[in-house]
């Protein structure tokens, strides 16, 4: 993998939006953040425009209510680009690492007046926002229409489909965190996991590692498609690109030359 100081040179994400932090006159700030499990990035306030790309690891977008309840609204894995979550006065929202996680942060707050007139930047930003809306719609459908068994089955199937490598799937979440993501209670999650294991669909090697024994049977049980890894938004001529990417046939837009 290319180093993060080579703007746009790594394959952590498809957008390569960090390229725009290097154009002439840019005041954008870019940094690498390494989080241990449980460490957080706080939500943006006061109009900041930050994008976070998961280079490695897994993180959760988490909201705490005033009464202490928690909702995990997104599980972000390698390749995800996140618009810094916006908090409001009645809640606290943050991005929390579920395992050791490396994040590339680009802060465009000081450059938006310039970049909003750059069609290449706006095209890439629109692609990122579109991906976020698709993910939110999938999760809303899961919580609103799927029963508890379907939710847990889909969750495990998507964890396997978005894994960084073949083989046993790493599950960096405990039962309580899974419950907070799926809108269930911990006891229900544990009961369904046992039921799915007995049905021969999944095999748990440990509490944090599993394999999918019968992917076709899993797919037949689900009324929705299983989400895959975040798509590569723009084509690339580099044959060493991540094999899990899915390039589309139109040219990669270049940052406009501005002074």
Offer a quick outline of the entry.
The chain has 259 residues and is of the alpha+beta class. The protein contains six helices and eleven strands.
Cα(first) to Cα(last) distance is 31 Å
User: What's the CATH superfamily of the largest domain, by name?
Assistant: Jelly Rolls
Percent range for β-strand residues: 15-25%
Q: What best-fitting shape do the alpha-carbon axes yield?
A: elongated
Overview of the structural elements:
The structure is a single chain. The chain is 28% helix and 23% strand. A four-stranded antiparallel beta sheet has the order 1-8-3-6. A four-stranded antiparallel beta sheet has the order 2-7-4-5. It is built from six helices and eleven strands. Residues 1-8 and 231-259 have low confidence and may be disordered. With 259 residues, it is an alpha+beta fold.
Give the SSE layout.
Elements: E1 29-35, E2 40-42, E3 50-56, E4 58-64, E5 70-77, E6 81-83, E7 92-97, E8 101-107, H1 112-115, H2 119-145, H3 148-161, E9 169-170, H4 175-182, H5 186-198, E10 202-206, E11 209-212, H6 215-221
Antiparallel strand pairs: 1-8, 2-7, 3-6, 3-8, 4-5, 4-7, 9-11, 10-11
Helix pairs in contact: 3-5, 3-6, 4-5
Task: Provide keyphrases for this structure.
single chain, 259 residues, alpha+beta, Jelly Rolls, Arc Repressor Mutant, subunit A, 2 domains, 4-stranded antiparallel sheet, 6 helices, 28% helix, 23% strand
